[in-house]
Each structure stands twice: as structure tokens, then as C-alpha cells.
Design brief:
Helix content: over 70%
Largest sheet: none
Number of helices: 3
Strand content: under 5%
């Protein structure tokens, strides 16, 4: 294994992580910003009000995107398994 090979493989790993987790994180961030903005406007400082909408939004997004996330992870895993002979050399 060379340095370039490890760099390329780690780049693929990080790209796959961002593709799989990115949409869920972005939805959680946007819902959190909207709820925080509404809390600052209405001056309601309830802690559960911040968590419940974020949890619901992330679960709904995960439910909708689960087939796509699974496809991304399966593609990455099959590529890794197919390249095992290259890794051994």
C-alpha cells in the first residue's frame, strides 16, 4: 500500500460518509435554525421545543432517503470487496 492509495481510499470513505449522513445533518441543522429563530421571535425558551421537531424531521428525512442511502453504502461496500486483491498486493 502506498501513500497515494491510502489517500485515495480515505477520500472515498469520507465522500461516502458525507453522501450518506449529509442530508440528514443538513435537515437537522435547518430545522434547528428555524425553531431557534421562532423561539427568539416569540421568546419561548422551552428545551423540548428544540428537540422534538429536529428528531421528527430527521426521522422523516431518513425514512424518505433510506433507499438512496442504502444504495450508496452498498455500492461502496461492493467496490471495497471487489478491490480486496488490489489491497493485498
Amino acid at each position: 500500500m502506498t501513500v497515494e492509495f491510502v489517500r485515495e481510499l480515505s477520500g472515498e470513505v469520507f465522500k461516502t460518509i458525507l453522501l450518506a449522513a449529509g442530508p440528514l445533518l443538513i435537515v437537522g441543522l435547518l430545522v434547528g435554525l428555524i425553531v431557534s429563530f421562532l423561539q427568539s421571535i416569540t421568546q419561548i425558551q422551552e428545551f423540548t421545543l428544540t428537540f422534538v421537531p429536529k428528531i421528527l424531521a430527521v426521522f422523516f428525512c431518513a425514512f424518505l432517503l433510506l433507499p438512496w442511502i442504502a444504495k450508496v453504502l452498498i455500492t461502496f461496500t461492493t467496490n471495497i470487496i471487489q478491490q480486496i486483491p488490489v489491497y493485498i498486493r
